[in-house]
Amino acid sequence: VQLVESGGGLVRAGGSLRLSCAASGNNFRVNAMGWYRQAPGKQRELVAVASSGGSTNYADSVKGRFTISRDNAENTVYLQMNSLKPEDTAVYYCNADIAPYGLGFRSYWGQGTQVTVSS
């Protein structure tokens, strides 16, 4: 099982980007899916998370600007980022709780995608 991310890039302040992350593999179950980010010199922090039932949670710094959504049939999670600010610049990582066939749930990480917001 692996998580493959796409959608990062360079954008001006006030602009928008959409990140995607798809879980691929055979015979697995997915629970929560979410996004974290890590800026240079800082710890990795939670951005947003969505449960398999649809409940969501956001970091205070992104509330009202970012929206997380998921397509359970496609095992894909999205992060729509609007009104981007320079302080949103970071490497964004997808995270998911996945149970491969016959095994328990554990945390999986994507490879990370760079988001750079210029002022």
Beta-strand percentage range? over 45%
Mean pLDDT value: 96
Structural class of the secondary elements?
mainly beta
Which residue ranges are poorly predicted, with pLDDT under 50 across at least 5 consecutive positions? none
Order of helices and strands: EEEEEEEEEEE
Radius of gyration: 14 Å
Helix content: under 10%
Q: How many E strands?
A: 11
End-to-end span in angstroms? 38 Å
Largest sheet: 7 strands, mixed
What does this protein look like?
By secondary structure, the chain is mainly β. The protein is built from no helices and eleven strands. Strands 2, 4, 5, 6, 9, 10 and 11 form a seven-stranded mixed β-sheet that branches. Strands 1-3-8-7 form a four-stranded antiparallel β-sheet, with no helix packed on it.
Structure summarized in a few sentences:
Helices cover 0% and strands 59% of the residues. It contains no helices and 11 strands.
Output the keywords.
seven-stranded mixed sheet, 119 residues, four-stranded antiparallel sheet, mainly beta, 11 strands
Secondary structure elements and pairings:
Layout: E1 2-6, E2 9-12, E3 17-24, E4 28-38, E5 45-50, E6 56-58, E7 66-71, E8 76-81, E9 90-100, E10 106-109, E11 113-118
Parallel strand pairs: 2-11
Antiparallel strand pairs: 1-3, 3-8, 4-5, 4-9, 5-6, 7-8, 9-10, 9-11
